[in-house]
Design a protein that fits this description.
By secondary structure, this protein is of the alpha+beta class. The chain is built from five helices and four strands. It is 42% helix and 12% strand. Strands 2-1-4-3 form a four-stranded mixed beta sheet, covered by helices on one side. α4 packs across α5.
Length: 197
């Protein structure tokens, strides 16, 4: 009898740009309403909790959700990601040459302030931007001393991780070269024979 109650839910797309309210009786009912509400195709849809990405894949779990739970609807290969703040750096017109880099650094710092563990998932270009940043140049987004200390730690950690990633890439390249030379028979892996005197 409890499944016969319609409950309200908040649904959004993967970018969190389209947000709608929907009343649904079941997970199946919710999925039937998604195409009309969010304009997504009716097939290959996945429902996850908007807050942490937990997949809602059966009616039993769906029935335990509280009213007004925020759900994200993913289509195809879309993946859940945490809600990151938008880059909101106000710069003078004279600074517009470096606007792209500064905006990107500000966005990266904003993401990392929510979860510093994400620094290890960044790519080489992002790590380079962070390791090359000047924390004093970000005074318009970081005002207090504690946040500047955090920026120094982010700068140091990103430089260290970038170095480790480059060392790992170099080691992999050396292993590939070694493997190729062994495969081609150009590398003699046996110890050299010693002549008897």
């Amino acid at each position: 009898m409890e499944n016969e109650l319609n409950k309200p839910y908040k649904i959004c797309d993967v970018n969190r740009e389209k947000k709608k309210g929907v009343v649904a009786l079941s997970l199946e009912d919710l999925l039937l309403k998604v195409p009309e509400k969010l304009g997504l195709p009716a097939e290959n849809l996945t429902v996850v909790l908007e807050s942490d990405g937990t997949e809602v894949d059966d009616e039993e779990y769906f029935s335990t959700l509280d009213p007004d739970t925020s759900l994200m609807i993913l289509h195809g290969n879309e993946r859940w990601a945490p809600n990151m703040p938008k880059c909101q750096v106000s710069l003078d017109q004279t600074d517009d040459v470096h606007l792209g880099d500064k905006c990107q650094v500000a966005s990266l710092v904003g993401r990392l302030q929510h979860n510093l563990c994400h620094i290890s998932l960044l790519g080489g270009q992002d790590l380079e931007l962070l390791s090359d940043m000047d924390p004093d140049s970000l005074a318009d987004i970081v005002t207090d001393r504690d946040n500047r200390i955090i920026l120094e730690h982010i700068k140091e950690a990103s430089g260290r991780i970038l170095l480790e990633k480059r060392q790992a890439q170099d080691a992999m390249e050396l292993l590939k070269l070694y493997h190729q030379s062994v495969s081609n028979g150009t590398e003699d892996v046996s110890p050299p024979k010693q002549e008897r005197v």
